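User: Fold this, then the next.

Assistant: Folding the first:
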Amino acid sequence: MSQQSVLAELRDLRKSYKLGGVFSRSTEAVRAIDGVSFDIHRGEVLGLVGESGSGKTTVGRVLLRLIEPTAGKIRFRGQDITHFSRAQLRPIRRHMQLVFQDPFGSLNPRMTVGRLLTTPLIVHSPDLSRTEQRRRVDEVLELVGLFPAAAGRYPHEFSGGQRQRIAIARALMPGPELLVADEPVSALDVSVQAQVVNLLLDLRDRLDLAILFIAHDLAVVGTISDRVAVMYLGRIVELADTVDLFTAPRHPYTEALFSAVPQVEAEARRARIILVGDMPSPVTPPSGCPFRTRCRYALDACAQEVPKLREIAPRHWKSCIRDDLDLVPAVDLPARESSPVLGDHI
């Protein structure tokens, strides 16, 4: 991918939260993000995966400037937006939108779907007439697989999958170039998850959308993503094209995540890698490699310094000093549907 195709860039991004109250003298801080760097290209889906507490959601919200970064740089469409004021961010926000995890909690139950979808237009395109607003609402509802009649109904009248389609439609209303989808299918039934994933892929192809897809389910991430970044304790530990990551993982944490993916076929099942203990505290992370306290391949040298994220093969990056490991790949790479399943209509 060329540099011209880069839509968003994160460089050494950090976010810390000071412990204690406003008047506390404590110098301790929770390092939610600790030096994250990656690019998102136009029209690509970048999967961001890791355990709960690894910092995935924080990365997405800092990228959108919903949370202020402690350090680092954020560039979007070639502009450094790291220190933009709210007024400066307003014209940028229409190009970067968020899809929340819980579709019911993110939709105002007192507003009709039509009003929910019209609100972004009032904010970002105030010159549109009511007729133009209604036309845009109908267009986007059909785009996400719902009928225009949905505009007159309330969120509680829809199923979970339909509500998530409405949430996606609301994010699409201003015409964004980047969607940050924060666990968008984890609250849905498995059958509906596939429909929403295929819908996002279809929207990516139709609208040339870039999507940061945040999830903890590797099977879903493998289905939708062009590239995958693996996070652990606020850091990217591996980043590669999806096929390369699934067929030749290079970081022990990625191997452990693959071993936890359930396999239906008995002959495909493999030994589960049990990570000893809990994820270390982001307040007092271990010295050296943050994963070394749970890694079965750890050496004494792993405690000496934090390994840098380095390119160990074309488009394949990892932060681990062990280049001699022969890690077990994922048993199977989830296949993509050739066309989206636009079921779950009204």
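Now the next one, as you asked:
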Amino acid sequence: MQDRVWQTAELTQTYLEGVRGAIPQAEVQLEVMLRLIEAAGVEVTAVLDLGCGDGILGQLVLDRYPAAHGVFLDFSAPMLAAAAKRLAGYGNVTLVEADYGVKGWEEGKRGLGDWETGPVQSPNRSVPQSQVQQLFDVIVSGYSIHHQPDGRKQELYAELFNLLRPGGIFINIEHVASDSAWGKGVFDEMFIDALTSYHQQNGKGQSRAVLAQDFYNRPDKGANILAPVEVQCDWLRQIGFERVDCYQKLFELAVFGGVKPVSSEN
């Protein structure tokens, strides 16, 4: 599978050090995420950061809700190592190495103790399975699910719906498809400008031409399977999510998701 490229230490380092900091309006996306969680009004006791990378999304949620337990899941050992480093001072986290692209990844994981199978474990909080109807109050994901084929995306959204407690919220900060080649071109140019500015500010010295060449020939490009945000919001509605919306969008960068109804029996 094309997304296996993300299991390499080289690409992990390139992304974390040279790309992620350049993402336009990243701070706005994170603020929107936190505002949505607050607006959902759910008691945040358990959080899943799906495809967590170095764990920045889940970390921000835990900083806002320090009594919660965070599960950070990724299939990339180098990414999980970066997450372990970022979260070293936290006693309320569990890191799990698992591939959510494979059906059945979540089976049996209904209590936090069942998740404690990853490279870093946190035994200080475990919820007895008998007390857990659904596992998480908040599920977040950042720039990860777009690597899955569309059919698998839909299956995964249904699986995440079932992992949420009633009233819980799912938020996806994601790379989505443009409606036209023109729109994609505008996005690409904006992102290259952002990369150039970021590298100049950090003294990396690479020219815009070099960065543009790297951008268009990046090794992970083939792993991107983009879908329009409107289509993905429709999938969420069909599954049963409510309050579904694209809450913030800049060309191919979108924040969208929904809330599991309190009356849901799934």
